[in-house]
Amino acid sequence: MSLRCILFFLLTGASCCLQAQVNGPIRISDNGRFFTHPDGTPFFWMADTAWELFHRTDIREAEFYLEKRSRQGFNVIKAVALAEIDGLRTPSTNGDLPFVSLESLEFNEPYWKYVDEVMDLAESFGLHIALLPTWGDKLYKDSWGEGPEIFNKDSAFSFGEKLGKRYANRKKPGGLIQELE
């Protein structure tokens, strides 16, 4: 085994045992080529994907998952506000749907309070939540997924605006982070 491989395994093994640290909101560097902490030091995006985090977990399961990912050295968790797998018609683990009705798209507060609670929990473990608002099939189901199509251009804008207002003033990580992959 080469010295490079040994160093790689030692360094990755050491880093995965460190708890994530949150130094404030993630920013884009002045040259637009990488992420930084507010103090300008580089931010390495080490993410895990948990798309169904808000819809398929109770608070104990979410806490277990987030604490474990933090201990493993992750610093970002990618999750979606509206679950992919029939999350608009099938209630969450907590018995809630995201909207009072699919016609009005009025937020169902118990669902969104749970999203808030999980985001707070993530922050307490030093994790940033990269929040994807919804899947594309909620706008164009013919191109992918099962829908239902609930958004048009105006209602999608309104939904994004509501999410933006709800999470604009979150401490440290929170907020909306655009999916970059």
Automatic annotation (TrEMBL):
<dbReference type="Pfam" id="PF13204">
    <property type="entry name" value="Apiosidase"/>
</dbReference>
<protein>
    <submittedName>
        <fullName>DUF4038 domain-containing protein</fullName>
    </submittedName>
</protein>
<keyword id="KW-0732">Signal</keyword>
<feature type="domain" description="Apiosidase-like catalytic">
    <location>
        <begin position="29"/>
        <end position="172"/>
    </location>
</feature>
<dbReference type="InterPro" id="IPR025277">
    <property type="entry name" value="Apiosidase-like_cat_dom"/>
</dbReference>
<feature type="signal peptide">
    <location>
        <begin position="1"/>
        <end position="20"/>
    </location>
</feature>
